């Protein structure tokens, strides 16, 4: 079975948009999704890139474009009032959830919380609610995200994405092939079929 390595940061609205479409895409072609959080700021720094919202003309375009894509996909979207958000602990929590086979459920719930429900995913209370919502022991999960092993996993995913050529989010890999952006999902599907 083929796998899509889905590298993302919860702070990326385009990663949210891709996440709304990837499960159905994977089901159509019989593939699996590996949810791989990474630290987007570190990826930007390594690639000499910067967030589009920092460039006034790109930022103005981005707001319209995100609304357009959300309408196209038929998914809820509202630009987060918590942006830019410190998403490190939420991304570490993906690794905690993965240990119990719940990476997808937690990732999807957290994306919705940030980009559809305008919740503060940096808040320990919100993280605890999200963890409980997917069947995790919230207290144990919050403790686990502070452990060296979980911190190292997020660092390792970030380093791997950089080594493989990622320069922004979402970065999706089918084998060694990089597909960047939610607007490249048709190419991801082609690669999975090929």
UniProtKB/TrEMBL annotation:
GO cellular component: a single term: cytoplasm
Protein name stated in the entry: 2-hydroxychromene-2-carboxylate isomerase
Keyword Isomerase annotated: yes
Domain of life of the organism encoding this protein: Bacteria
Active site location: 12
Source lineage: Bacteria, Pseudomonadati, Myxococcota, Polyangia, Polyangiales
GO terms, molecular function: 2-hydroxychromene-2-carboxylate isomerase activity; glutathione peroxidase activity; glutathione transferase activity
Pfam families: DSBA
The reaction(s) this protein catalyses: RX + glutathione = an S-substituted glutathione + a halide anion + H(+); 2-hydroxychromene-2-carboxylate = (3E)-4-(2-hydroxyphenyl)-2-oxobut-3-enoate
Keyword Transferase on entry: yes
The DSBA-like thioredoxin domain, residue ranges: 3-193
Keyword set, alphabetical order: Isomerase, Transferase
SUPFAM superfamilies: Thioredoxin-like (SSF52833)
CDD domains: DsbA_HCCA_Iso
EC number(s) on file: 5.99.1.4
InterPro entries named in the record: DSBA-like_thioredoxin_dom (IPR001853), GST_Kappa/NadH (IPR051924), HCCAis_GSTk (IPR014440), NahD-like (IPR044087), Thioredoxin-like_sf (IPR036249)
Protein's GO biological process: glutathione metabolic process; naphthalene catabolic process
Family of the protein in this entry: Belongs to the GST superfamily. NadH family.
């Amino acid at each position: 079975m083929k796998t899509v390595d889905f590298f993302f940061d919860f702070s990326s609205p385009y990663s949210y948009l891709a996440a709304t479409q990837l499960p159905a895409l994977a089901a159509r072609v019989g593939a699996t999704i590996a949810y791989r959080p990474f630290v987007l700021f570190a990826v930007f720094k390594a690639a000499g890139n910067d967030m589009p919202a920092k460039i006034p003309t790109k930022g103005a375009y981005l707001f319209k474009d995100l609304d357009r894509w959300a309408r196209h996909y038929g998914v809820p979207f509202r630009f987060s009032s918590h942006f830019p958000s410190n998403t490190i602990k939420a991304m570490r929590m993906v690794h905690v959830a993965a240990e119990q086979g719940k990476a997808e459920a937690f990732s999807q719930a957290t994306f919705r919380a940030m980009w559809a429900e305008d919740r503060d995913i940096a808040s320990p209370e919100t993280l605890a609610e999200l963890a409980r919502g997917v069947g995790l022991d919230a207290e144990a999960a919050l403790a686990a995200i502070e452990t060296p092993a979980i911190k190292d996993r997020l660092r390792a995913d970030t380093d791997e994405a950089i080594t493989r050529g990622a320069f922004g989010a979402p970065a999706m890999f089918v084998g060694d092939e990089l597909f960047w952006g939610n607007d490249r999902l048709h190419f991801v599907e082609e690669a999975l079929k090929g």
